[in-house]
Amino acid sequence: MATITVKQVRSAIGRTKDQKRTLEALGLRKMNQTVEHEATPAILGMVRAVSHLVEVTDKK
């Protein structure tokens, strides 16, 4: 599977609990923090739910 890099670029302050929990599940706790994940359907769905808070780049 392909690997993606997810970076939090906007704050979770003032967001819904679901969005905050999704960021936590992705492993993002601070601004500008970067994590790598396999591009599984579950991960891609989580990224889509918080797409306005994160920046995604493909890694091949």
Which helices and strands occur, and which strands form pairs?
Layout: E1 3-8, H1 17-26, E2 34-38, H2 41-49, E3 54-59
Antiparallel strand pairs: 1-2, 1-3
Helix pairs in contact: 1-2
Question: What does the model show?
Answer:
By secondary structure, this protein is an alpha+beta fold. It has one domain (3-59): Ribosomal protein L30/L7 (Ribosomal Protein L30, Chain: A), CATH 3.30.1390.20. The protein is 32% helix and 28% strand. The protein is built from two helices and three strands, in the order E-H-E-H-E. It has helices at residues 17-26, 41-49, and strands at residues 3-8, 34-38, 54-59. A three-stranded antiparallel β-sheet has the order 2-1-3, with no helix packed on it. Helix 1 crosses helix 2.
Summarize the structure.
The protein has 60 residues and is of the alpha+beta class. It is 32% helix and 28% strand.
Count of alpha/pi helices: 2
Tally the structural domains: 1
Would you list the SSEs in sequence order as H and E? EHEHE
Shape: globular
Please name the defining characteristics of this protein.
single chain; 60 residues; alpha+beta; Ribosomal Protein L30, Chain: A; 32% helix
